[in-house]
Amino acid sequence: YYNENYEGTTFINSASGFELKFRGTAVYADICVIGSRDSMWSVFVDGETDSNARVLTFKKKRGMFTKKTLVEGLPGGEHTLKILKRTMSSADYAVIKNLASDGAFLGAPEKPKLHIAFYGDSITCGSGVLREYKPADSKIYTAETQNALQSYAAYCASELGASFGVFGRGGITLKFRNPATEPFSVINNYKSMAVDLSVENGECPEYDFSDIPDAVVIYLGTNDYLRSLSSNAGYSLAGMEAAYIEFVDKLVGAYYGFDIPIVLCSGMMVHNSGLAGAVSGAAQMLKPKYPYIAALDFDAGVTESVGGHPVVEDSVKAGAQLAQTLKTLFVNSGRILD
After folding, report:
1. Strands of 92-101's sheet in order across
2. What is the average pLDDT score of the chain?
């Protein structure tokens, strides 16, 4: 969204970014990073798919803009450039302006035919997905070990040839938060551009729900359960089932209609928490109204037993499972996929 205070475009959520086409060898931009740590991005040139091949790290500058090179040294000619944010909204955001090239910008590249909206927490944002965990979980969760572009969401989108967006961040709950320390949950702030920004306080504009996705995936509840282990936030499995139903109605029913494919997910962390039952129960209750809804309980991640987040091998497996589930829902809904 456009940030009037900084006179540039703000990119805050994991996997947010932009794509452009240009003629030349290099692209530059003025970038300001705000947050508690550096902002890390992946760059893709001419259809590249490896999110670790070209990685940019933008240092936090306390509100100061710095001219940065996004890509350089390319052969002369026409190129496409895509740049996507790897890190979470709670850690950093970047304001970008004054895009420039040593050549000329061309018309916008064609968008993918599918777009999937994900609502999730650190699992969906790829927190710790790149950390070393053998022979024991290192529990290192840094900007360097996070990559939303290697989360299950990214692998699912890649298999479907889709673009995707993420709303959420590490530690966020669907509903059952500690109000003394947590002002927001997804269910009470989903209309914002990011889950920790207040529309009422003028921190960002309200999200434009006229931009309708082709499918919605919700993977929340892990932190609701974890809160219940240390504080009384009113959590219960029955409450979680009701929260899922409430959120689908408030988000999908209110803005996207009743015939869009929806997947409610659980399982890669706190696998034995009972959340799978709450998710399945919610899907069953919602199915008469939303015929193309499904519950998907992923296999436990390889470090789940020690409380670890999913790693790349978990993401690949879960992404394939989710893609297959969505394919089935698309077919059932009459959507023909290429």
Report:
1. 2-3, 8-11, 92-101, 27-35, 66-71
2. 95
Q: Using N-to-C axis directions, what is the helix angle for 152-160 and 312-332, rounded to 10°?
A: 50
Rounded to whole angstroms, the maximal C-alpha distance in the chain is 61
Q: What is the pLDDT of residues 192-201, one digit of tens each?
A: 999 999 999 9
Picking from 110, 94, 73, the residue whose alpha carbon sits closest to that of residue 29 is 94
List the structure tokens of 274. Answer: 């009972």
Share of the chain above pLDDT 70, in %: 100
Q: Do the beta carbons of residue 177 and residue 233 sit within 8 Å?
A: yes
Indicate the helix (H) or strand (E) that contains 105. strand 104-105
Distance of CA 21 to the CA centre of its chain: 24
> Model pTM?
0.96
Phi, psi of 219 (to 5 degrees): -130, 85
Cα separation, 117 vs 126, in Å, equals: 16
**275-284, long-range: CB < 8 A, 24+ apart:** 275/221, 275/222, 275/225, 275/237, 275/240, 277/237, 278/221, 278/237, 278/238, 278/240, 278/241, 278/244, 279/221, 279/240, 279/241, 279/244, 281/241, 282/240, 282/241, 282/242, 282/244, 282/245, 282/248, 283/244
pLDDT tens per residue across span 205-223? 999 999 999 999 999 999 9
Do 11 and 87 form a contact (C-beta atoms < 8 A)?
no
